[in-house]
Amino acid sequence: MEACNREIVARMQSPVPLIPQLGAHLVAAGGKRLRPLLTLASARLCGYVPSAQNQRHVGLAACVEFIHTATLLHDDVVDESTLRRGLASANAVFGNKASVLVGDFLFARSFQLMTADGSLKVMAILSAASATIAEGEVLQMATQNDLSTPIEKYLEVIHGKTAALFAAACRVGAVVADRSEQEEAALDAYGTNLGMAFQLVDDALDYAADQQVLGKTVGDDMREGKITLPVLAAFQAGDEAERAFWLRVIETGEQTDEDLPHALALIEKRGAIQTTIDRARVYAEAAIEALSIFPDSPIRQLMIDAASYTVSRVN
Amino acid sequence: MEACNREIVARMQSPVPLIPQLGAHLVAAGGKRLRPLLTLASARLCGYVPSAQNQRHVGLAACVEFIHTATLLHDDVVDESTLRRGLASANAVFGNKASVLVGDFLFARSFQLMTADGSLKVMAILSAASATIAEGEVLQMATQNDLSTPIEKYLEVIHGKTAALFAAACRVGAVVADRSEQEEAALDAYGTNLGMAFQLVDDALDYAADQQVLGKTVGDDMREGKITLPVLAAFQAGDEAERAFWLRVIETGEQTDEDLPHALALIEKRGAIQTTIDRARVYAEAAIEALSIFPDSPIRQLMIDAASYTVSRVN
Description:
The structure is a homodimer. By secondary structure, chain A is mainly α. Chain A has one domain: Farnesyl Diphosphate Synthase (Orthogonal Bundle). The first copy, chain A, contains 16 helices and two strands. A two-stranded antiparallel sheet of chain A has the order 1-2. In chain A, a hairpin with a 2-residue loop joins strand 1 (83-84) and strand 2. The radius of gyration of chain A is 20 Å and the shape is globular. Chain A starts with a helix and ends with a helix. Chains A and B meet through helix 4, helix 6 and helix 7 of A and helix 4, helix 6 and helix 7 of B. Chains A, B: This is Polyprenyl synthetase family protein. Chains A, B: Belongs to the FPP/GGPP synthase family. Chains A, B: Pfam families: polyprenyl_synt. Chains A, B: Its cofactor is Mg(2+). Chains A, B: Keywords: Magnesium, Metal-binding, Transferase.
């Protein structure tokens, strides 16, 4: 992971000073490096042995993180966010223009890293995931402010914007270890289900967490009129007055300071956080089940624990 | 070229309706398809023979256009443009968010097209060009409103934002025809120099052309405080009063309705359009010279004519 962090910093270099400056801001902001960790863990699970000669896993893990960082930069512009992981977001510090363009640079850089790796299979996986992410983001935009969005469409959105890259990050681990299609598919399933669980919990936290823990403002999703499961569940289970409330705040976007506490109370009343977490748990269990074809090992146990932990983030 | 247009439309398809909708807007807006034409012409010049089995040139030409279209979508967001090729720009019709995200989709799609082609060499060329374009755009942003920008830095900006993709489009033509490094380099030089000439002329037209012909508003660059050669040349050759004028309109951005006619008069007085065109002509001549290693042929003559025509767009 240290080698991967070094690679990330090294590959952000550019003769154009603003690029490493903005890159340093992103690196300083930290982030969990969850996606590159998935690539490294999956490779290890598949018996991949790194060596001085074989450092493919490092470049590919960095590549996965670059794709993720590029989409974060563009997301923050699209969502007009001002906080990211508890710090001022890059668009708030450097402006939207810089975020769009440096995002493009990181995206291009990720493809250079893939090309340097040289596996057409890896490129097909990661370029398809990149297209799916963009489709998920566009679909999310299209569902914004629309409470008639079916839950299936919401699941399609989070599959695109989150689960697709989790799946690709894991699958790439099997590819560098040169394992069977069956093992690739198992790791893809692990990543997909883990990503779904992760995003469901993230969406629950937006109506449940305390800002300090989350590193983002509670209620951001509501303010943006974003359609997530906590809102859909509370809306669908609500009585007439509750539905009128949700229609006003989410569809018309007319919001006052008292709306967030009221929304949290309605979500609590209708058990909508629990509904969301229950769904997340089903995905986490499917993720764990997908690992059953691999023999038990410390790394396998770690990946199982990661899936369990994902769901336990919300109390 | 028709096959390439069909490929462009086909590869814009997505289950997310907004993507083909925005794609149709871009296709309807037309555009000269200059960059895919360069790929097709370069391949032909190198003796590439298309066949029912061999359609690589079509996919790669579409790929080059996708990269270009993605950067246009993001440019228009960054520049807050409202017109593109004489029609409402995509961001004006669909919003900035859609333009950012569909740009990302097209960029990802271009990498899928490259992966489908399967040549690591092509991928290295096009992914490096994509990174260089983003660097050029960031550098352009960093020079905005700054009249102390050296002409060399301006040339670096237009190399990044325009010439790099022209060069890559041409070089890819030599690669699909499996020609020598010398021929690849010659086509790269042709593309680079043509791209420089093209952008210089484009920047001259922003202070010279009539809006109907240009399909964009004259004076856009001035309104945005963009640093281009016509302005740099007029500023550097100007007397004290002229320099004060340029500092006000470009650096502070304080502009009135009378400023554009006055700016055009100063540019005329200092021969700054001519300075710009003279530079463009030197690049166009270098582009033509780069083709001298190829035997004479109708396609070579067409590429020579294209370079000459580029400079003759301004009277």
